[in-house]
TrEMBL record:
Topological category with respect to the lipid bilayer: Peripheral membrane protein
Signal peptide coordinates: none
Domain called Thioesterase: residue spans: 55-133
CDD domains: PaaI_thioesterase
Protein keywords: Apoptosis, Cell membrane, Cell projection, Cytoplasm, Fatty acid metabolism, Hydrolase, Lipid metabolism, Membrane, Transit peptide
The name this protein goes by in its record: Acyl-coenzyme A thioesterase THEM4
Cross-referenced InterPro entries: HotDog_dom_sf, THEM4/THEM5_acyl-CoA_thioest, Thioestr_dom
GO cellular component, one term: membrane
Similarity annotation: Belongs to the THEM4/THEM5 thioesterase family.
Amino acid sequence: MCDTAIQDLYAEEFANCFGCGRNNQHGLQLKSHWQGDECICRHTPKSHYTGGVPGFLYGGMIASLIDCHGAATAAAAKSRESGEPISRFVTASLNVDFVKPTPIGIELEIRGKATEIKNRKVTVALQLFAGETLCATGKMILVQLKN
Ligand SMILES: CCCCCCCC(=O)SCCNC(=O)CCNC(=O)[C@H](O)C(C)(C)COP(=O)(O)OP(=O)(O)OC[C@H]1O[C@@H](n2cnc3c(N)ncnc32)[C@H](O)[C@@H]1OP(=O)(O)O
């Protein structure tokens, strides 16, 4: 696994995101790392992110985890393909399927893979696991910001 998180390579002006900005003191500060042919993010949500049923995670938080990790996956995949430094991708489309209730209190693992890279557009498929249990899947289209 690469030691440096993708988000730690974002330019300073893109480092303030609530989900993954290293400079956002009130944010989640998610970190994504390339491993093999996919990108991995691990995060343990705090208990107040419940969806109302104690012990289970709010769907909006699940979507946020998938969203930010998907952006990092797209940036890393594009950089690996082009040989250029990490750039910033934003979400154009985000689809989440909630497969099983997601428990709070254990570390979640989100796995992302780029399924298509076409110029500035990258399509990413994601899976969110709690232990061995697949709790959610995502499909995203991300677009590289113009310089
Ligand atoms: C500048 C900072 C923006 C805000 C950052 C927020 C960070 C986040 O939280 S990300 C989540 C929220 N996302 C956003 O706020 C993004 C809002 N949307 C936008 O800014 C623009 O629509 C943006 C950047 C995604 C695309 O605009 P633009 O750069 O003009 O690209 P555009 O030429 O329209 O599209 C590029 C390619 O993506 C495709 N595409 C764009 N949107 C979609 C979509 N929704 N579904 C499928 N394909 C799409 C286009 O068809 C095109 O494909 P092709 O090259 O094959 O023709």
